[in-house]
Amino acid sequence: MSQAQMSDETEHAADRTEIVTAAVEWLRTELNDPDITGAENFLDVGGHSLTFSKLNIFLGGTFGAELDKKLTYERSLSEAVAGMTPVDRPETIEK
What we know:
- The chain has 95 residues and is mostly helical.
- The chain has one domain: ACP-like (Non-ribosomal Peptide Synthetase Peptidyl Carrier Protein, Chain A, Orthogonal Bundle), CATH 1.10.1200.10.
- Helix content is 58%, strand content 4%.
- It contains four helices and two strands, in the order ααβααβ.
- The chain has a two-stranded antiparallel ribbon with strand order 1-2.
């Protein structure tokens, strides 16, 4: 692996860590549970479809990516973040 590839991998891992931290903090506030961690499953901590939608709105607006529902419901929060996909954003229309 080249130095550039290793740098990209390190940067991507740092981005994922930042997103996991933000998602966990958001869920802690939304679900009023300060003990939630990235190793936990979204449904096991009390998440549901409305919480999922609101979390995706937050992550899309903040990081430009969204969670996959199947991954989020079946895996840990950290694994769900690793499987995020970019959000299609509409072009800005000037008035």
